[in-house]
Amino acid sequence: MDGVLLINKPAGCTSHDVCQRVKRKFKAAKVGHTGTLDPMATGVLPLCINSATRLVQFLMFGEKEYAGCMRLGIETDTQDIEGSVLRTCDAASVERSAIDEACVAFRGDILQMPPMYSALKRDGVPLYRLAREGKTVEREPRRVTVYELDVLACEPPDVRFRVVCSHGTYMRTLCHDIGQKLACGAVLSGLERVRTGGFHVRDALTLDALELLSAEDVSRDYLIGLDDALRGLPEVVVDDAMAVRLRNGLSLTTCDMSQLNVPVTTGGQLLKIRLSGGALVGVVQTTGVCDPAILTGESTRAWKTVRIFAR
Q1: What is the pTM for the complete model shown?
Q2: What is the assigned CATH class of domain 64-196?
Q3: Could you give the CA distance from residue 200 to residue 67 in angstroms, rounded to a whole number?
Q4: 228 tagged catalytic
Q5: Which is the catalytic residue, given 2, 38, 109, 158?
Q6: Structural domain spans, the chain
Q7: For 235-308, CATH number?
Q8: Domain range 3-60+198-229, CATH architecture
Q9: Could you read off the pLDDT of 231-271 as tens digits, one per residue?
Q10: Above 50 in pLDDT, residue 293?
Q11: Cβ(194)–Cβ(201) below 8 Å
Q12: Fewest 10 Å CB contacts: which of 3, 105, 130, 261?
């Protein structure tokens, strides 16, 4: 069994727990996920099984979509409803217009301070372990992008919202920061990951449903092949000779590219390489701007090989 399986993670378990459960059920050698969901969160969790674990680095950085709920008038050490309460405030008088106005400041490119209760590491130690020991260490703010942030319903102290954002955006921190803007505090009280990259929760299996299926059922009806899992990457189709060159560790040049149907790309763009029959050859990264209209017969190195897949 090799491919990507979409699981609708329930609340109350870790992403690692889900990986281990799937690994045991199908006796898989390797199972990895493409981005952690907190234990309290639900939603789509793509699992890469066996050889598909080589895709993790390409799948975890896609755009994310969340549906969530924040509770106003409370602050906790974890920035969510399950943490220890640090401060409370009466938020009954907070108006919808003030919440909408506060959200404006968090659309677009923003800086977020990673929370202490996170899987980021300091000297090899996850921050959440340090936090559990009562320690706080300095962190550098990180730039993330919030493409969309909409308030769906407001019944103080609870506010339901929808977010589309870049990889690495902490929903807990977003709620906390909005609470600071409103001067009443706020925590994340519920979260569902609706989409990550091209994978949607509507296509995901619950763990209960999974238990009723055989490996054959899953492979036939639910497992996403390696090529299809990379559907979000622009692709280039090569012949057998070029595939052999790539698999032997040789780079392709602008001269090679002039013979192919190559999409316009920017420098650093990832490209999926496959054979005309559909077999995935690998993933490469462009070394500069690539425009098929101006390709020449030069032998300049054009692609950097990132990953090659066995036949």
Answers
A1: 0.87
A2: alpha beta
A3: 12
A4: no
A5: 38
A6: 3-60+198-229, 64-196, 235-308
A7: 2.30.130.10
A8: 2-Layer Sandwich (3.30)
A9: 878 888 888 888 888 888 877 676 666 677 776 666 677 88
A10: no
A11: yes
A12: 261
